[in-house]
Write a structure and sequence with these properties.
seven-stranded mixed beta sheet, 2 domains, Rossmann fold, Four Helix Bundle (Hemerythrin (Met), subunit A), single chain, 341 residues, alpha/beta, 11 helices, binds 5-S-methyl-1-O-phosphono-5-thio-D-ribulose
Length: 341
Amino acid sequence: MQSTFDETRDGFQAVRFDGRVLELIDQRRLPQTEHWLRIGDIDGVIGAIADLVVRGAPAIGVTAAYGAVIAAHQRGKDLAGWHQDMERLVQARPTAVNLAWAVARMRQLVAGQGDLDADALAAEAGRIHRADIEANRAMARAGSAVIEPGSGVLTHCNTGSLATGGIGTALGVVIEGVRAGRIARVFADETRPWLQGSRLTAWELARAGVEFQVIVEGAAAALMASGAVQWVITGADRIAANGDVANKIGTYALAVLARHHGVKMMVVAPSSTLDPAMPDGAGIAIEQRDPAEVWRAAGLEAMPAGFAAWNPVFDVTPAALVDCIVTEAGVARPPYDFSTI
Ligand code: MRU
């Protein structure tokens, strides 16, 4: 696969690797500061994923693949030690299957070769990255073609260049749809508590020259009732064989609202986000994060004494509420069956 990153088509390259060192833009500090971190050890890679320096399912997968290369450089011939690193890497975040998928690809390569070859692993990581760039392009084209000209769309979380290897999943469809003249209005959900929408999606859309408005989560019903949006478009962190979709907390609420208002729901994700071994969404592990994130979103330094919060950062949208799932292979409609992917 020849595909290389092209800023005019693929947006912004948020994950870079020179063969030894990973460069990540620190997404915790956007949009105020564009600060890059240089990471050359596996503990740093695991920490960057766990602490959301890099986030978004496909970007986590690409980062993990480069992490496997970095671990191989550190471990030399110590295959058992490298496998231990891979175990810890997979556990950095539980919900996005792209992480386990990328590590499994790297392990498969090592199993085939019988030893650790950092150059071969780097080539494989590059293939994973380039395939994601290509998948993003294909999904942007396929998804935007489904949208009726003149439509308004609402997106959730951040699913663009910061979250993937290329132009993005859902946000790729949005940007392509605007450029193709099919999408007339763009709304981005703020996405509490981490504010991926009002910090990261807003930053990306402004960079891409796309006009948009951010809404607070509670405004979604009123927005749909106003008739301004015809599609909700989101990404996914894991899609079960029956089409149930795990994605950023709040996606399920949007899907319920969309169905009530006659708004359609599109989920956009590469095949690396499909989990054919997971029959339905009930078995998907939902990451619970520090309750203090909820208080920080309220402008408080940490969780004040005596306060409490429940902070699941993903939810599962039943397949019955999803009108179509766009992958690089095309547009799937219900009934979904991804068991043989
Ligand atoms: O917690 P995050 O920011 O990693 O969650 C990201 C999402 O939920 C995205 O919608 C999903 O990963 C798809 S990104 C292309």
